[in-house]
Write a sequence for this structure.
């Protein structure tokens, strides 16, 4: 019956057995193998004896021209040589990271307010440093980022607010954001008072499509606004506001990005709204990943340059 070597047997094997075997294979001599390995001849002979027991094969037999390999040794040699080469590669010091060598698609998760504010600049920065790379943006938020990371649907996420529940997720605060109002400058020549603000028709952008932080802040004041329509995408706002007297309150970074591209006006909301943290999150196995480290650095730089 063929003997099967299990994991426990492999764990007890000495790596020197493989190096001794390959030295004998290449030198066809125990004494020359010992000189090559800077070991005593008895140490190499002992290694060969152990290998003969493990494999139940003589492996090398003496002849007039040296130690001739058996068929089993001939089959083992390329496998052990490749295995030692792979181990050497695995244990070698990492090469210095060069962004130009990144030639794959990097998948970034963020909601569309961050895409509006950071997306174009992030792609430009990334391509300037890694021309062979590309970026895929996936919609996510603080409620969905951890699950998407754990499912390996995204590499890194930029989210608003607190940490999720992922057991293997890292979080890093990279700054803060707050809120601005966005409206047509012709319809709103001056920032509204609180009374005017409440009376205006509001366009809501909300993950749930029902209510948002503004409604909670107004409720604390015993007030309520009139929401005439609700969207789930910030990018859809401009056509609703242009040429109308309607108003929207949204994250500062998204409001500024939309104002720059559409000519809409921004102004401070007439009620106190707490700023919130902007965070990056990633899987713990990305801690030592040089590509992940570089990508996270780019994302933090782009955010902090806004």
């Amino acid at each position: 019956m063929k003997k099967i070597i299990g994991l426990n047997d492999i764990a007890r094997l000495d790596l020197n057995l493989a190096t001794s075997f390959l030295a004998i294979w290449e030198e066809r001599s125990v004494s020359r193998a010992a000189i090559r390995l800077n070991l005593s001849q008895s140490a190499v002979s002992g290694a060969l004896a152990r290998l003969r027991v493990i494999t139940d094969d003589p492996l090398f037999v003496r002849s007039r021209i040296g130690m001739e390999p058996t068929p089993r040794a001939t089959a083992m040699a390329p496998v052990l040589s490749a295995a030692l080469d792979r181990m050497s590669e695995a244990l070698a010091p990492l090469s210095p990271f060069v962004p130009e060598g990144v030639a794959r698609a990097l998948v970034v998760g963020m909601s569309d307010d961050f895409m509006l504010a950071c997306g174009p600049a992030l792609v430009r920065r990334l391509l300037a440093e890694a021309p062979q790379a590309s970026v895929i943006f996936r919609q996510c938020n603080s409620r969905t980022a951890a699950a998407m990371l754990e499912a390996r649907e995204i590499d890194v996420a930029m989210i608003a607010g607190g940490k999720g529940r992922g057991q293997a997720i890292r979080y890093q605060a990279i700054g803060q954001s707050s809120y601005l109002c966005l409206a047509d400058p012709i319809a709103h020549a001056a920032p509204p008072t609180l009374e005017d603000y409440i009376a205006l028709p509001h366009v809501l952008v909300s993950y749930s499509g029902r209510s948002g932080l503004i409604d909670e802040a107004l409720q604390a004041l015993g007030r309520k606004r009139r929401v005439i329509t609700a969207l789930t995408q910030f990018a859809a706002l401009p056509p609703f506001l242009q040429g109308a007297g309607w108003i929207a309150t949204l994250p500062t970074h998204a409001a500024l990005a939309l104002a720059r591209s559409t000519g809409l006006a921004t102004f401070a909301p007439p009620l106190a709204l707490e700023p919130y943290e902007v965070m990056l999150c990633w899987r713990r196995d990305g801690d030592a990943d040089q590509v992940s480290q570089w990508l996270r650095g780019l994302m933090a730089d782009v955010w902090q340059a806004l």
Observations:
- The chain has three domains: 7-91, 99-177+277-304, 179-274.
- Residues 179-274 form a domain with the D-Maltodextrin-Binding Protein; domain 2 fold (CATH 3.40.190.10).
- The CA atoms of residues 103 and 133 lie 4 Å apart.
- Confidence is low (pLDDT under 50) at residues 1-8.
